[in-house]
Write a structure and sequence with these properties.
- The structure is a single chain.
- By secondary structure, the chain is of the alpha/beta class.
- Helix content is 34%, strand content 14%.
- The protein has eleven helices and seven strands.
- Strands 2-7-6-1-5-3-4 form a seven-stranded mixed beta sheet, sandwiched between helices.
- Helix 6 (105-108) links the parallel strand 3 (98-102) and strand 4 (122-125).
- The longest helix is centred in the middle third of the chain and has 22 residues, at 179-200.
Length: 308
């Protein structure tokens, strides 16, 4: 399969956003993406701990825990050299420009057995000053600003990106899944809007074909916290929109995200990679559009989540 230069993919990982919270809140930028493609529930499978390390490793490698070997938030004993993340695989094997921006240390740094992303073409790591909701919100703000700058730069055409936002998860840990948590989810939506504005503002955008995938890793118990097997903790989700995205398949899994990244760039996964995921159904010809009356700023108007 050929890989046209005008195909590009943005993956946004928002940590710890409950599906029921997402469906209930007005999140205009995520709502618009879902309406143009789909919002699908994802259930963390029986083998995978409901923790960020195992779930994000599954999302970005396209294989399950038995293969990538990340069983906790300490990545020690992983097999990421055998089953690398999509940004590293695209950069090393195909010479594609890839970019990762994240604040959580194991994603991009050697701490706790990381990094998960082994060798993207370009990366930005901004660590929070402390593990508090306020510090993580400031971190996400810096990550969003840096990622938007890179995405808008037509001189450094990035083929595939992963941008991580961690404040909702940290807020739930400290304060539970109440008003502060919901406000953190709304701020994450506004940051997704800014990333989309950066993409749409590229001078070459009309000649490009963008796929956007937004995914969470796990949910939360009502009081905050995860790692157990409750329905609330296992309930994750994926939003997908782009020229190859139509109705959601009957079942969407975390392992399918990396497979879709390759497919959206016109690459068939090599059978020797032994990926566990498969791309989403390839139908539709949507273009990314902004929700009415928004430009990346928070929108407090009520809206309904378009869900499949």
């Amino acid at each position: 399969m050929s890989a046209p230069a005008d195909r590009r993919v943005l993956v946004v990982g928002i940590d710890g956003v409950r599906l029921d919270t997402l469906r209930r809140l007005p999140t205009p930028h995520l709502d618009t993406l879902a309406a143009e493609g789909f919002l699908a529930p994802v259930e963390v499978d029986d083998r995978t701990p409901t923790m960020s390390g195992p779930c994000w490793a599954t999302v970005v490698t396209g294989v399950g825990v038995d293969k990538h070997g990340v069983w906790s938030n300490d990545f020690a004993g992983h097999r990421l050299d055998v089953f690398p993340d999509f940004a590293t695989r695209l950069a090393r094997q195909y010479g594609r420009r890839t970019f990762v921006a994240a604040g959580w240390q194991p994603l991009l740094q050697v701490g706790d057995g990381g990094p998960l992303f082994r060798a993207p073409s370009r990366s930005v790591h901004v660590a929070p000053t402390e593990d508090t909701p306020e510090a993580w919100d400031r971190c996400d703000e810096q990550i969003t600003a840096e990622a938007a700058r890179v995405l808008a730069d037509a001189g450094d055409a990035i083929d595939a990106s992963f941008v991580y936002l961690g404040a909702p998860d940290e807020t739930a840990h400290y304060l539970g899944c109440g008003e502060a948590y919901e406000e953190s989810v709304r701020r994450a939506d506004a940051r997704v809007g800014r990333l989309l504005d950066a993409v749409r503002g590229r001078p070459t955008y009309d000649r490009e074909h963008w796929t956007v995938l937004v995914v969470t890793d796990h949910g939360h118990a009502d009081a905050g916290g995860h790692g157990g097997r409750s329905e609330q903790e296992r309930a994750a989700w994926v939003i997908a929109a782009g020229p190859d995205i139509g109705a959601a398949p009957a079942v969407v899994r975390h392992v399918d995200v990396a497979a879709q990244v390759f497919a959206s760039l016109g690459r068939e996964a090599d059978r020797h990679w032994t990926l566990d995921g498969r791309p989403f159904t390839a139908v539709g010809t949507s273009r990314l559009r902004a929700p009415e009356g928004t430009s990346g700023a928070p929108d407090t108007r009520p809206s309904e989540m378009a869900a499949s």
